[in-house]
Amino acid sequence: MRAIKNAMTGHIARIPFHLADRLYGTADCPSSDGVQFGTTISKQIKEQKTMTNQVVSEEKICFYRENGFVKFDSMLSQKELAELREALDEVMSVDSERSFSRVKDSAYYKMLNQKVNTWRDSAAMGKFVLHPRLAQIALELSGASGIRLFHDHALWKMPGDSKPTPWHQDAPYWPMKETGPLSIWITLDDVDEQNGCMMFVPKSHNVGKLKGISLTEPESLFDYLSDDGNEPSKAVVVPMKAGSCTFHHGLTFHYAFANQTDKPRRVLAIIYMPDGTTFLERKHVVTDEISFREGEPLGGRLFPLLAIRDDA
Ligand SMILES: O=C(O)CCC(=O)C(=O)O
């Protein structure tokens, strides 16, 4: 516990991702990859027809399940990356009711300039947000029988007086009873500690759902950890090249550095939920306009089913 509390004061023990493979998680994972993951989402469609149609290696699945996050290099080809940058830049160039924080000097905006459900405004964004192969990866990592879209969001960390995204779990903010949902975080720019790469605490998804802390007030997620010896291990820093991505579990502790450069850090995140995930009454920008009843499965045309298991 002490190590983690110190972490919050800025003295966190940070482990680069290339060492994390060795330190965490892979001990019980098969060393052989089984089915290899392809290099681009478009290539996967053509090349990854295997006996089982599985697109993610057993090693990656195992790493994700043990640690609550996993990285994929070069998820997008250069062409796809250029296409996504153009589409996202266009979507972000106009404010709308989907822009989460429109007050430019607000505490939230300094942390994130966010736009929700870009797929509903732009077919070019829809191509990526609804992409069957990205959903297939979420399906395989989660082990669900089907995967639905919850929402996407553009997450830009603006230059200027940029603030880090504090340590948090995602699940406490979601109007869902179950805790299986997961996010993909695709970076459109090279990211490192200077411009807002992420850090994850391996195995922290095992501690359960904690409080949804205020992201803009000084409050520490780690204060809500019970002192039962179930202390998560140290944080792993995940710098990435543009076009790469991470997936993280809804309960995994994660953090993003402030952007100290003079350009926006551009990210597209997509939140996937196992089919059958049910509504839990709470305020949320995506479900506030819809009259779901408590316990009702989240579904319908705004939460489309994107992938199903072959044998489901
Ligand atoms: O991009 C960021 O700064 C934070 C991202 C995040 O918290 C998430 O994708 O869940």
TrEMBL record:
Keywords per UniProt: Dioxygenase, Oxidoreductase
Molecular-function GO terms, alphabetical: 2-oxoglutarate-dependent dioxygenase activity; iron ion binding
Pfam families: PhyH
UniProt-listed Gene3D superfamilies: q2cbj1_9rhob like domain
Protein name: Phytanoyl-CoA dioxygenase family protein
